[in-house]
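Bump. Still looking for Prefoldin, beta subunit structure tokens.
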Amino acid sequence: MSLAALEAKIEKEVTTYNQLQKEYSKIVSGRQTLESQLKENELVQTEFELLDDEATIYKMIGPVLVKQEQAEAKTNVKKRLDFIRSEINRAEKQIKDLDVKLEKKKVELMALQTEFQKRKEAASA
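Sorry for the wait, here they are.
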């Protein structure tokens, strides 16, 4: 492989590495959003547990508060919590997979850069 071809391969791998980092950042950010949603919904669930059976619950739909059955509200929050937890698990799996890919790509890049330096020095000599 020529020096120019090796340099082009390094540039391509750096671009791929940067794309993986962007994807990683996006997933981490999404996971943080899910985590805050989880905390919020857990708080709602805790508040529901404190209510007596006769308490009235309202759900905001746009600018309007609509009366909602307590059982239905509790079920909706439970389903939402289950969904958020599954999404967090999915995000964590993606993060682990990307960690592996990023580390692998980093090792490849270091090897390519070392090879490039050796060839450049050999060509100069």
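The two ends are 18 Å apart (CA to CA).

Edit: fixed formatting.
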